[in-house]
Predict the 3D structure of the following.
Amino acid sequence: MHENEIAKIIVSVSYSIHSNLGPGLFESVYETIMEHELVSKHKLNVVRQFPIPVIWDGAKMELGYRADLLVENKLIVELKSIESLAPVHYKQMLTYLKLSGVKLGLLINFNEELLKTGIKRIINGSL
């Protein structure tokens, strides 16, 4: 399955979660439900809290970087439940993409009245 197809499923699931639960819950709640939906209903391979090491001078440094969800080893999903996304959140996603070699990321802030304003697609390289 191509990254764009996976992204469509994730966006659809995000809208479903947001319309049923609304904004204001903890990020961990959205993460748990998102994983459940993607695995049980869409049969996608999902890794929660995927570790992202930093390779420096040929050594693998386990520094505690973790992406919320890695879907089908092709797409990183970073979930937020905050007032508004800041530039640092985009930079964080770009860094995760670069370090992991994954090309596409979705940054989703569930704490928006309209979820469409809280979904950002971030690309590392060309798709």
The chain has a mean pLDDT of 93. The CA atoms of residues 53 and 63 lie 6 Å apart. Residues 3-123 form one domain.
